[in-house]
Amino acid sequence: MSDLFNKLLIIRTPGVGPVRYANLVQNCGSVAGAVDFLQPGSELRDTVMREMDLAMSKGVHYICDDDVRYPVGLKRIKNHPPILTVRGNLDVLQRSMVAIVGTRHATATGMGFVADLAEEFAKNNTCVVSGMAIGTDTAAHRGALRASNGSTIAVLAGGVDYVWPLENESLYWDIVARGAIISEMPVGFVPVATNFIQRNRWVAGLADKLILGEADLKSGSMATARFAIDFGRDVWAIPSHPADSRGLGPNSLIRSGDAKLCMGVSDFFISNKKDKTQKKITEKNDSEFNLIDALGTIPVSESVLTDIVKKSISEIKRELVILELQGLVRKVDGGYVRA
Questions:
Q1: Same domain? 152 vs 256
Q2: What is the DSSP letter of 2?
Q3: Mean pLDDT of residues grouped by 10 in the chain (339 residues)?
Q4: Do residues 135 and 200 share a domain?
Q5: How does 264-294 read in b/e, with b if 16+ C-beta sit within 10 Å?
Q6: Interatomic CA distance for residues 206 and 221, integer angstroms
Q7: Rounded distance, CA 102 to CA 313, Å?
Q8: DSSP code of 300?
Q9: Cα torsion at 210, 132, 147, 102 (round to 10°)?
Q10: Same structural domain for residues 219 and 169?
């Protein structure tokens, strides 16, 4: 019986998480001893065997915390996942990492700023870590992939083969090709709400530093930043307008001194390039301006736009047609972007 199979039997036992896993192995003297203590039944053994077969068929790797390829930053975290599933390039797990997180409802300006930061980190051999959500996470991943040698890691709340959100399917495969998708959950696992909090913890734990973009005060991104602070990571926050709820998160961390003020690439790298200025768009119709403001270089779907702009799908479709005819937006795979 393989050591990996035994480890999976322990961690896949109902009621066993990273804490109990570590205690069982320590108290029983070994992984095999812990399995003997738990006495897993044939049903669990069959489930683990099927999972391993599925992982093999999908090119998914298991990385245990005693493997030299296990991410150093994550291993330093108390009660870290004893086993990670990884889909993609295992080599990126050994790179220096920066986490970039923020709201799903980011502005075009915010996403552009984040994408530029991520690209510069990637050019400097730093792997960009995020959670593959729409908005800020997507901008971070896409920005990193703009660099010719860029790599990025997406940490998922579900199995590494479970693509979510569906709008990011093309991004998912780009990350598999150039970086890595990782999770602590079994292959094929569909996430529930509580898994995302733990996912945020691992995002913070992986990276040497964390940069917070636009984020509401009570949000998953703020929770990730708090984890990073607790872990003693170097935390930076991108300021935003105080009247915008998306600015409350980063602004509060800067004011409290828990995060450093992030003004751009020059905070991290020497560059002769001037900061890019956002092109001003003036529209006769205020509602059209709001719609354009929600768009940037990252494709946004109609369903997501309805949530951001707070309009019906029919209104969104009508305005998009007008803006497309005016040459202000264009339709691409996954949604719309500014032209």
A1: yes
A2: -
A3: 92 97 97 97 97 97 97 96 98 97 95 96 97 97 96 98 94 97 96 94 98 97 98 97 94 98 93 42 45 81 84 86 82 84
A4: yes
A5: bbeebeeeeeeeeeeeeeeeeeeebebbbbb
A6: 15
A7: 25
A8: B
A9: -40
A10: yes
